[in-house]
Amino acid sequence: MTLDFSWSFAAQISPALARGAGVAFIAAIGGFFVALLVGAVLAGLQRSKRWWLALTGRWLMELLRSTPLLIQVYFLFFVLPGWGIVLEPVTTGVVALGLYHGAYVAEAYRAVLDNLPAGQWDAAHSLRFSRYHAYRYLMLPQMVLPLTPALGNTFITMLKDTPILAAVSVPELMFAANDVGAQSFRYVEPITLAALAYLFMSGVAALVVWLLRNWIKGRYQ
Amino acid sequence: MSEMIAFDKVSKRFGDTVVLDDFSFTLNRGDKVAIIGPSGSGKSTLLRIIMALDGIDNGKVSLNGEPLWHASAGKNLIVPSRKHLHRMRSLVGMVFQNFNLFPNLTALGNVATAPHLVLGLSRRDAEARGRALLEQVGLGDKLDQYPATLSGGQQQRVAIARAMALEPKIMLFDEATSALDPERVGEVLEVMRVLADERDLTIVVVTHQIGVARAIADRICFMENGKILEQGAPAALLDAPQNDRTRAFLRAVHLS
User: Fold this and answer.
1) Is residue A67 part of a domain?
2) Most CB atoms closer than 10 Å: which of A4, A52, A53, B2?
3) Could you tell me the pTM of the whole model?
4) Chain B neighbours among A 125-154 (CB < 8 Å)?
5) ipTM score of complex
6) What tens digit of pLDDT does each residue of B145-179 get?
7) A74 vs B46: CA distance, rounded Å
């Protein structure tokens, strides 16, 4: 049993791991923006006054939340081509992460929206704002700050979910680390470096959230 | 038609609680009425119905001679069309106990956004109107400040300017001075008085602060359990109340 950490080997494999980290980051960022959109659509559907739209939204959200991410990835990659829809592996990853986490983002939107003081809507109605204007200029801007903790968490969770995309041959970080290990029979360096890379990327995300929160708070005071 | 607000046998319940009970009430253009009474007596709901934020269960409510709400027993409320609601609301402005300013907009943004988006004024004209109103309420130097940086009295003056910016004919004040420090009540009261006089507004003030009612109103109604039990000129009602319940309420308020 050897646990000696070779710096030179670590240096030698870091370009390959950095590429993997880059792919993971791109998949997570892409998925994040898809999730913001999917969440908005699902939350919007559920707030619809037409019962069948609201029900569809609810049902879609439950479907996305109650099935494993891996199954959704497989579905997009192996089932959709049967209907003529062929997605690249990374695109598959972005869409799958976006759909799966979009369901949770929808819940976050809903919670924050429900928690806006009722007085804000009273004021908006009394001033005759249309629904669209009220959301666009009054409610959505107020939602950003309370949403940041949940959305920051979502991004970090998505980042940590990217290894699942290896199942459809997305060359992300864990895929790269595994590859190095399988070829060299050394796992200490690739796994350690991969862990550090996830830590680093999560740290950057947390920093961005922190900066954003402070910027917003500073603006309104 | 000089009848600005008319309630005709209006009933309103929340679950088992009767908020308005066969309630009739008329206000002519330019009237300034204060409604006093214990909390839970239906005062705020009255204002919310005039602002079309709440409907009714029975009876009829008209503003400026046009029906707003109409409901009869056993039948559903006739919900006004969005267009009609929009038009009726254009008659009315409302000021809330907790100000309800938009925290993401500056003082000027709070006042000028609705004239721009709702009335279709150009941004420049809307801001000119907002600036003039904020100057009139003594906040000409706070245009670019966000609500969180303003005192309660200042926030409420912004809220009054915001409602006035849409040029309503009726202004509703729902406990507008109740959340303020006592020494701040005067500044808001002064603004209410000046605006009311210069624009010939019809005003309904709901309050449990007797001083506020006396300062603003030319008629005071005492309301309890969804009914007006007594009404009259301020001096008559406040200094020589006829109804036992009114007397008890006034005594309790003076003691507190």
Assistant:
1) yes
2) A53
3) 0.84
4) 125-130, 133, 137-138, 141-142
5) 0.92
6) 999 999 999 999 999 999 999 999 999 999 988 88
7) 59
